[in-house]
């Protein structure tokens, strides 16, 4: 069988159970998966790249054919440098489609030897997004159905100053 290396890029701010679901499905399809933590020009991440990398490495350590790294610059250049010929993206709902279609098209213009493949997460995780998880954590809600405990702890610590200042305000 041909060995295909695939890259799964994202901001992973933070990594969720939905992302892990996509990684797990990908490990059954490709010889190697590179989870690539990048920067989106449209978003300002709350967790530093080093923290996102550490969390993803810890959570994905159980998959022997998964490598986690961060990248900057164009995704297709990084993919090529890593020997990846497939870009994996998760498609959760029809609302993801237009943006994902644009991104796949842009990446194909940049390098037409790299194919984008879309995978859907299990129904249970179809509505999770990192920003939703951040908002729940910020407002003191329980994020444990959506993220692993290592992530929940980091988010809790991240938002402690915010919760303390809010509690002071309402005293
Ligand atoms: N489970 C949970 N969440 C999921 C998900 C799943 N299965 N599938 C998608 N998502 C969510 C993410 O949580 C994220 O949510 P958020 O917007 O609330 O944070 C959202 O869908 C998509 O974000 P993400 O996967 O992080 O990708 P992105 O759209 O932010 O793109 C890069 C990030 C790094 C891939 C992209 O900006 C990039 O390629 N940058 C490099 C520069 C480049 O090459 N640009 C040209 C390419 S167009």
- Count of DSSP H/I helices: 6
Q: Which regions contain 5 or more consecutive residues with pLDDT less than 50?
A: none
The bound ligands are: coenzyme A
Mean pLDDT: 93
* Major beta sheet summary: 5 strands, parallel
For the termini, the CA-CA separation is: 65 Å
Q: Rg from C-alpha positions?
A: 17 Å
- What would the principal axes of the Cα set say about the shape? globular
Helix vs. strand class: alpha/beta
Sequence of secondary-structure elements? EHEHEHEHEHH
Helix content: 40-55%
Portion in strands: 15-25%
Please sum up the structure shown.
With 171 residues, the protein is of the alpha/beta class.
Descriptive keywords:
single chain; 171 residues; alpha/beta; five-stranded parallel sheet; 5 strands; binds coenzyme A
What do these coordinates show?
It is a single chain. With 171 residues, the chain is of the alpha/beta class. The chain contains six helices and five strands; from the N terminus they run E-H-E-H-E-H-E-H-E-H-H. The chain has a five-stranded parallel beta sheet with strand order 3-2-1-4-5, with helices on both faces. The longest helix is centred in the last third of the chain and has 21 residues, at 149-169. The structure holds coenzyme A. Coenzyme A is lined by residues 9-11, 13, 16, 18-19, 22, 38, 40, 43, 74-75, 90, 92, 103, 106-107, 121, 125, 128-131.
């Amino acid at each position: 069988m041909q060995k295909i290396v695939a890259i799964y890029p994202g901001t992973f701010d933070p990594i969720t159970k939905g992302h892990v679901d996509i990684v797990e499905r990908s490990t059954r399809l490709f010889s190697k998966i590179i989870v690539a933590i990048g920067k989106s020009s449209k978003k300002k991440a709350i967790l530093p790249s080093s923290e996102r990398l550490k969390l993803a490495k810890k959570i994905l350590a159980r998959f022997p054919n998964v490598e986690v790294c961060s990248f900057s610059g164009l995704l297709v250049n990084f993919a090529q440098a890593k020997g990846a010929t497939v870009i994996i993206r998760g498609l959760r709902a029809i609302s993801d489609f237009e943006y994902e279609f644009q991104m796949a098209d842009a990446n194909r213009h940049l390098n037409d030897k790299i194919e984008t493949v879309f995978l859907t997460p299990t129904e249970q995780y179809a509505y999770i997004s990192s920003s939703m998880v951040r908002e729940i954590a910020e407002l003191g809600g329980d994020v444990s159905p959506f993220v692993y405990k290592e992530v929940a702890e980091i988010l809790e610590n991240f938002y402690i100053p915010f919760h303390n200042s809010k509690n002071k305000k309402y005293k």
